Amino acid sequence: MNILNYILWNVDPDIFSIGPLTIRWYGLLFALGFVFGQRILTKIYVAEGRTEGDVDVITLYMIIGTVIGARLGHTLFYAPDYYLSNPIEILKIWEGGLASHGATIGILFALWLFSRKQKFDYMWVLDRIVIVVALGGALIRMGNLMNSEIIGRPTDVPWAFEFVRLGENPVVPRHPTQLYESLSVFALFVLLYWLWSKYKSALPKGLLFGIFVTALFTFRFLVEFLKENQEAFEDNLTLNMGQILSIPLIIAGLFILFRVWQNPTPALPGGRLPEKEKEKRKV
């Protein structure tokens, strides 16, 4: 007989409802990522000679890039047959289905557009934005925990969670992988923010971005060994889809860190481009 007292997790994903409107923990935490992120990014931008207006614009790019990228990533990486046969379902974001790897691609593309339009140094933008993206990622994983989704494999560790809302009978203790990821990404946020606050523009271009991408997706790759697969087709794969998609991002992060180590180049204050580069973009 098992005498361990596991953590009973039976949180209602809905906070409250007013008529047809339902406020959910996931949506609240997702939104708070942008609210807190905007405040922190404003502090960073103002400290380096930019304006709050720049933050308002980049926040809009971020929201659009995150939502579109995360949704398309889920549809293409995890259930392409279903969504290609039912394209209208792609628009039903409220029913769930967002992929962090897709969000990464969407954010990178949105910020590239932002940098081109506003004449920012792209790598400077990425180095600063990953600080708040890390915080947002930690909050989103907490939202997954509140939804009792993206669950871990069965385990007998004393901190295992029993996810009552899965409807298992009997309830199976599982790794709280959402919590593992949330805490690890929050620790990454603390590290990145500390590095920026201590060194600011003296940091070599690409260092913060390289650290973020390498650390985030290395941990993601490892924690996937403790997760249940999200889709049935992954059961036939040696590595699941999350791990497969993480590998090229880990390689990219290591390559950026290697380039930084080889040729550390301090960022220009405020992410300003060299004059020659500005002239090229005007042509």
TrEMBL record:
The chain crosses the membrane at residues 15-37, 58-78, 98-115, 179-196, 203-223, 243-261. Pathway: Protein modification; lipoprotein biosynthesis (diacylglyceryl transfer). It is an enzyme of class 2 (transferase). The keyword Lipoprotein applies. GO terms for molecular function: phosphatidylglycerol-prolipoprotein diacylglyceryl transferase activity. Keywords: Cell membrane, Lipoprotein, Membrane, Transferase, Transmembrane, Transmembrane helix. A 1,2-diacyl-sn-glycero-3-phospho-(1'-sn-glycerol) binds at residue 141. It is found in: Cell membrane. Its main location: membrane. InterPro entries: Lgt (IPR001640). GO terms for biological process: lipoprotein biosynthetic process. Its EC number is 2.5.1.145. It comes from the Bacteria. Catalyzes the transfer of the diacylglyceryl group from phosphatidylglycerol to the sulfhydryl group of the N-terminal cysteine of a prolipoprotein, the first step in the formation of mature lipoproteins. NCBIfam families: lgt. Belongs to the Lgt family. This is Phosphatidylglycerol--prolipoprotein diacylglyceryl transferase.
